[in-house]
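Example record

Each entry pairs one chain with its bound ligand, adenosine-5'-diphosphate.
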Amino acid sequence: MIKNLLYVLNLKRKETYKAILWELVHAIFLAAPIGFLLLILQDLFLPAPHPAKLWTYVGLMIGLLVLQLFVAVRSVIASNGMTYAVSTDLRIRLGNQLQRLSMGTFKQRDPGDLAAVLLQDVANFELIFGHTVGNITAALFSMLVLSGFLFITDWRLAIVLLAALPLVWLMVRLAAHLLTKQGKKHVAARNATSARFLEYVSGIRTIKSFGMTGKRFSSLEKALNDFRRASIRTEAIPGPFVLLATVVLEVCFLLMLWLGIHFFAQGTLAIPVLIAFLLMGYRLYDPIKIMLVDFALLRYMNISLGRVLELLQTPRQGAGKNLQPSHYDICFHDVSFGYHPERKVLDKVSFQIPEHRMTALVGPSGSGKTTITSLIARFWDVDEGRIEIGGIAIQDMKPTTVYSLISEVFQEVYLFDDTIYNNIKYGKPEATEAEIIAAAERACVLDFAWEMPGGLHSAVGENGNKLSGGQKQRISIARALLKDAPIVLLDEATASLDPENEIYIQQAIQELVKDKTVIVIAHKLATVRKADQLLVLQEGQIVERGSHGELMALGGLYRRLYDIQQQAGGWKLGKKALPEP
Ligand code: ADP
Ligand code: MG
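Structure tokens for the complex follow.
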């Protein structure tokens, strides 16, 4: 926790030092009247007290009190200033960080979880930090100053009072340990709630159409219940420990009293000193009691802060140089990659994808075909080896350059809640109307758009929910056509389509791949027979490569897969013969 706190405090050093300085001055002012109290007591017990002297002390104490008010206000302002500076800085850093993270990071994380970090965790941190850090610093300093006073006055009694501290510290550690464990469950339960909620809301249509309302809702309800239980447990943990710590403090105080009376009877302690200890002992313990409560809050804050820092420290994609390839062949040199460190999906894979040719990736489901296309588009960075486009490593290019070189058509199409026209336009924001209409025509979008009331300017609905899968697919092809990038990635674009749509889409794709470097992944091996090169993947390795004819002659995995599909008549009937090649 200390490490995390130091990290954020270091973000804004000037404000932090200022706040700490004011808290220190504040603590001194809080403790100073007690020094006068000691002097007054000592004077009162003199055989002949000087009233004038006493009144001077009282006057000075009143003066200090007024000054103390001023200092208190300044220290609150300073610590608010620090909180504001630090949390603003954190938010700006998070914003910058989000822009620089690889797409993979976003794909990998639960969107509900990411939103929770950005919204709830930062707010959580801000709230608790602002409330507690000032308090705790002030408490620490005033304890320090006060124990200094006590030590000078009578070190024996001071030691007895201070002996409570290590014990209380031990209990705080124990409570903190339990609280961190429970707090993690609490945060996890909270995030599960937001994720279930997002899922419930975004899937409402599917949920309704399949009549799953009750079932889906019950998973949201369960998440909410878990969250409630976790919240109650989190609240309950510190209670007993705070109580126990208070008992320890009381016991030490009584011990000090007992010893004080004992020393007095021995004649080694004066009455005013004993009275001073009785008055100040309680003052010494006050900040500890505040800290006990705040410390629990701080631990909780630390969990949120940890998650914020984790996101901030996720490696960014390098900025890259301003390199622009002049040709567009793609080359994998000993590329290894895994989504998780324990499991490699690709293991030292090398291959060449020639320019202006079609290369097909085939292989069983899970063999890493989609992964290869994601790596080319730099959604993820490779673990080992390098990927080059036109002889330049993609890590050396700006991520935006890489994106500009590639058009993608995936089975799952993402459309913005906008018109067909604007959805196509996203492919090339500066395109003219004529260019957009031409792209719509070539991708067979006009064939269905002209039947709609608004034509190309009809709205597609949220994520295209007013259109069929095939229609959405054609819009995404039009978008890619308009972008006219030199490299085209097609991932299972024609899977699960009706025969009519499939014809249209085949036609649109023929338009799209003209003169391009094309990488295609297809369910039906018959559709990629014409590819110039086939790469056969199995368990993260390229096991066969060559043209359809060569691979059939080889009689290996490709031939087996092809024969199975032929026998099942899969490609003739337009059905999937394999679970998911
Ligand atoms: P294919 O496209 O050939 O079916 P993929 O490239 O999608 O195969 O997946 C290869 C392996 O990587 C599979 O074992 C899959 O479970 C795993 N995988 C794919 N995407 C992710 C991801 N985002 N996170 C973790 N593992 C993944
Ligand atoms: Mg795939």
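The chain has two domains: 12-312, 342-412+472-568.
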